[in-house]
């Protein structure tokens, strides 16, 4: 099989593709992101056999992989219209892929737990309903580690890199900017400053890991991520393509803030 890239996506805002937002977002705020997701599989060198997705909305003491053959739905957002709690993403899980993930991590000396009850949170089902609306691809989830250590998440990605040669699409699902307090009233130049740094860093082949580990020193880094759980999925994706260049795969202004996605390898 052709080697698949590892991808970092901004997964939008809650159930953003199934509702209309008032200004300052407006009714077309997430249109470009939806188009990107809809064409993602077709843009790959080969159709994946399965998806391994690392969601910003799942944290455990150690990396934990979902083993459920048929994950349910986990509606972990609040205050949205009733119909957004009726969404359904009936993709199968892949216990075989979960076992491979556990094996690769443990071989690399990384502790890995399992969870046979976890449902698809919105960091998974929101983008995947657009990426694979027929739910034909098996989807396995992998958690972040609660300590949010960049080096550890880069190492997780490095350990999982062989999956790219086995038809597995690795997706880190988070957001390139995630400061909800300043989303509408914060300084847009701060978000733009960090986005420029992140794009420059992500698209490097050499020296990328060192810069990512020191992301807090980046211009407006902490202002863009008061808590870094939405940035850490990028570390896993980037780690899975160590030494390979990254590419800016998506960019848009959503609510006046730049949002970017990257493809590695």
Polypeptide structure, described:
This protein has 265 residues and is α/β, with parallel strands linked by helices. The chain has a single domain (6-264), classed as LigB-like (Protocatechuate 4,5-dioxygenase, Chain B). It has helices at residues 31-38, 40-43, 95-107, 122-131, 150-160, 188-202, 208-213, 221-224, 232-239, and strands at 6-10, 50-60, 63-66, 112-115, 139-145, 168-174, 246-254, 257-264. The strands form two sheets. Strands 5-2-6-1-8-7 form a six-stranded mixed sheet, with helices on both faces. A two-stranded parallel ribbon has the order 3-4. α5 packs parallel to α9 (232-239). The protein starts with 5 loop residues before the first strand and ends with a strand. The mean pLDDT is 96.
Ordered list of secondary-structure elements with their pairings:
Elements: E1 6-10, H1 31-38, H2 40-43, E2 50-60, E3 63-66, H3 95-107, E4 112-115, H4 122-131, E5 139-145, H5 150-160, E6 168-174, H6 188-202, H7 208-213, H8 221-224, H9 232-239, E7 246-254, E8 257-264
Parallel strand pairs: 1-6, 2-5, 2-6, 3-4
Antiparallel strand pairs: 1-8, 7-8
